[in-house]
Write a structure and sequence with these properties.
- By secondary structure, this protein is α/β, with parallel strands linked by helices.
- Helices cover 35% and strands 13% of the residues.
- The radius of gyration is 18 Å and the shape is globular.
- It starts with 11 loop residues before the first strand and ends with a helix.
């Protein structure tokens, strides 16, 4: 199928490589800091409750490597919202891993600000609730600090790449821009969102202390559930099959609830 009307293919990549026929539900996937759309390669082979997985392609990586990473929150979420085009009028769910969870939260707020339909589900993976993040912006991280950050959270995924100077710079360039954005995030008090949340994480993740998921429950009026998996910050690699099977059930239930509400006259 051709690109759906109004969507921007620079920003959106269907995980299957081509768009599905029709106008079915979409799962928008937001990657972790320094990563790109290929983080979600293979998701199209899972049921996902009938949702089509579509990854966000951020500037500064993959086939947008020559572009500068976006380092302003308002600009980033506005650009992503613009890129969605007509997808906002389909059943839409959002999955964000690590920094992608923070991006997803701000995107949901931007969609509400524009008066657009609420996504049927927000799946938050491996990130503190934004109101529990440090309130003071930190200085830009040095190269050594970036390398330490990567090795602490991703011991298995990038070890060899970080040892190669050429690959190291290709990895650190988008990461540096993303963490500059992340580390200057300023939470704003606004009314709770009307999208249900499911918070996911690895039970050995150093970035998610026990009970940290409860902060997300404060940000929605539609309910929030927690589910932990064996593993650390990148538990979703080793646990992908189980994670996506569980997520499929979450998406089916969320879509069913959304449709029942619409038939009953709710928003």
């Amino acid at each position: 199928m051709s690109v759906p009307p109004g969507t921007d293919p620079r920003w959106l990549r269907p995980c299957a490589g081509t768009w599905r026929e029709g106008a079915g539900p979409v799962l928008l996937c937001l990657p972790h800091a320094g990563a790109g759309a290929l983080s979600f390669a293979g998701w199209e082979h899972h049921r996902l409750g009938g949702f089509e997985p579509v990854a966000v392609r951020l500037p500064g990586r993959e086939d947008r490597f020559e572009e500068e990473p976006v380092t302003d929150w308002a600009a980033l979420v506005s650009l992503i919202a613009d890129a969605l085009g007509g997808l906002v009028h389909r059943p839409l769910a959002v999955f964000g891993h690590s920094m992608g969870a923070l991006t997803g939260f701000e995107l949901l707020r931007e969609l509400r600000r524009r008066g657009l339909p609420d996504p049927v589900l927000f799946a938050v993976s491996a990130h503190l609730a934004p109101q529990r993040m440090p309130r003071v912006a930190r200085a830009p991280r040095t190269t050594d600090e970036l390398l330490a950050y990567m090795r602490r959270l991703d011991r298995d995924g990038l070890g060899e790449l970080l040892d190669d100077p050429e690959w190291r710079e290709m990895v650190l360039r988008p990461l540096r821009g993303d963490l500059l954005l992340h580390d200057t995030y300023a939470y704003r008090e606004l009314p709770a969102l009307a999208t249900p949340f499911v918070v996911l994480g690895g039970v050995q993740d150093p970035a998610m202390p026990e009970g940290a998921w409860t902060g997300w429950a404060e940000l929605t009026s539609a309910g929030c559930a927690w589910r932990g998996y064996p593993g650390g910050h990148f538990y979703l690699r080793e646990q992908r099959g189980q994670l996506l099977a569980d997520l499929s059930g979450d998406l089916e239930r969320a879509l069913g609830t959304s449709r029942a509400t619409a038939e009953g006259g709710g928003r």
